[in-house]
Design a protein that fits this description.
homotrimer; about 150 residues; mainly beta; Jelly Rolls; five-stranded antiparallel sheet; about 45% strand; C1q domain-containing protein (chains A, B, C); signal (chains A, B, C); secreted (chains A, B, C); Cerebellin_Synaptic_Org (chains A, B, C); Tumour_necrosis_fac-like_dom (chains A, B, C)
Chain lengths: ~150, ~150, ~150
C-alpha cells in the first residue's frame, strides 16, 4: 500500500504519546518521578516507560495534560517538570472526611529538541495509580523551524 | 467563494466534536451511556447525540477529554470506552461532608475507522448534568494512512 | 536559515497561547475576569495579559482547557465565556471539612475572527492563584476558510 503524507507520519512516529500508571504510588519521603508503564498510545517511543521521561523529538509547541485520583488520607502534589523547571502543578490537602480527591492540569509548552518533560510526585504525597485513573498525555501540536523568531511574552 | 485547503476541511467536517449534557443523570442500577444533547461544536456529526457514540470517520490519533460535576451523596464513576474496552476513568467516593465533587480525564487514542468511543456512567453513581459543567470533547489530531507500521509499545 | 512551512508558522505566531495566574484571587462581590499575568507560551500575543482576553486571530476550531485549585472555605465558579455567552463552567461548594478543591473543564469552540474568550470568576467565589496551579490554555486546532458550509448541529 502506498504511503501518503510521509512527512506528517514520520513526525507522528516520534511525538505522539499517552500513558497511565498501574500501581498505587507513594507516599515516599522524597520527590519521585512518576513512571507510567501501560501506554495507550506511544507512537515512536517519545515516552520512555522505564525512566518516565518524555523527550521532545523535535522543537515545537506541545500540549500536555495529566489527571490523578488519590485517597484522601495523604496530601497530593503532582508537578509537571520541563528539564528542571516546575511548569504546572496540581495538589490537594489530606482530609479525614473526604474519601478521595481528583485533580489535574494542562499546559502548552514550547520545547526544544531533546527537552525532557515528566511528572513528579511530591515527597510525602500519594496518588492512586492504576492503568485507567491516573494518566499523562501529550502531543506535538506544531513543529517549529529553527531560525524563526517568535514573540514570547 | 473559493474553497482552499479542501482536504483538511473535509477531514474537519467529519471529525471535530464537543458536547455536554443538560440534565441530572443517575444513579441508575446498571451502567448507562452518557448522551450529550447539547453540542457546542460537532462539525460533520461524528458524535451522535441520540446514541452518545462518537464514531471515528477516519483512522487516526484522537484526543478526548471529559469533565464532570457531581453531588457528593453518591459515588461517581465515568469511564471512557473504546468499543467494549475501558480506556480511562474518573471516579469518586460518596461523602456526607463534601457537597460536591469534580473530576475528569483525558487520553490520546489511536482509532481505526468506525471505532466507537463513548462515556459510560457506572451503576449506582451519578453526575450533575447540565449544559455547561459535565462535558465531553474530542478531536482528530492526526490522520493515519493505511499500510504504515507504527511502533506501539 | 531558511524558513520552511511559512504558512503554518504564521498561524502559530498568532494563535497558540497558554497562561496561568500568580496571586490569590477573590472572593469579590461581583463577577470578575481572571487575568493571567505569567504566560508559559503565548506566541503572537493572542492572549492579552492586561485584559485577560484571548482574541481569535483567525476563524477556526479552538480547544480550550482550564484548571483551578481553591481553598474550601468559599465556593468556586469559573466560567469560560465566548464574547458574552457562557460556554462551560466548573464550580464547587464551600465546605468546612475538605481543605481544598480542584476542578476544571475543556471545550472545542468554533470561533470567528476577533471572537473573544476569557475566564470569569463568579461573584463571592475564589480560586487559589499562583503561577502553577490555576491555569488556562488554548490553541487553534484547525483554521476554517470563509465560504465553506459546516453542518453544525
Amino acid at each position: 500500500m502506498r504511503i501518503k503524507y510521509r512527512n506528517s507520519i514520520e513526525e507522528l512516529n516520534r511525538a505522539v504519546f499517552s500513558s497511565d500508571g498501574n500501581k498505587a504510588i507513594g507516599p515516599f519521603n522524597t520527590d519521585t518521578t512518576l513512571i507510567y508503564k501501560t501506554l495507550k498510545t506511544n507512537v515512536g517511543s517519545a515516552y520512555n516507560k522505564h525512566t518516565g521521561m518524555f523527550t521532545a523529538p523535535v522543537a515545537g509547541i506541545y500540549y500536555f495534560s495529566f489527571f490523578y485520583h488519590a485517597g484522601g488520607a495523604h496530601p497530593v502534589t503532582v508537578s509537571l517538570i520541563k528539564n528542571n523547571e516546575l511548569i504546572v502543578m496540581a495538589h490537594d490537602h489530606s482530609t479525614s472526611h473526604d474519601g478521595a480527591d481528583n485533580g489535574g492540569n494542562a499546559v502548552l509548552l514550547q520545547l526544544q529538541q531533546r527537552d525532557q518533560v515528566y511528572l513528579r510526585l511530591g515527597a510525602n504525597t500519594n496518588v492512586w495509580g492504576n492503568n485507567v485513573v491516573t494518566t499523562f498525555s501529550g502531543f506535538l501540536l506544531r513543529q517549529l523551524i529553527e531560525g524563526c523568531n517568535f514573540n514570547l511574552n
